[in-house]
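User: Look at the shape:
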Amino acid sequence: MSKKEKAAACFKKGFSCSQAVLSAYSRDFGLSRKTALKISQAFGGGMARRGETCGAVTGAFLVIGLKHGRTKAEDVAARDKTYALAREFIRRFTARHGSIQCKTLLGCDISSEEGMKLAHDQGLTGSLCPNFIRTAAEILDEIL
């Protein structure tokens, strides 16, 4: 199964976008699925269900950091590469979906009770989020 399909399947089981993306790649970097799910939980729903940066994007940033992030303060090259890849990810994701902001992508603000009800009633997360998750994995596969 491809990473994008693993991520989409994880989301369909009830995990957040960020959890789905990070967990699909976690074992490649020596991180257990369980730890990946725990680390990425707070990023779901656009950062703690605030409708900010899409969880598929933040999950991808975590993957980029696992692959290229620096472990020594003086490793400026690793820092710069990580930032460059994150910016490239944003550019590609935005080109495909118009934004990286959850509330813009969904067309409603899930940080409010009314917005969450609207998203649920219209099936927005179930119909839109899998596409964002697949895009995140596709872009990761291209840039990593």
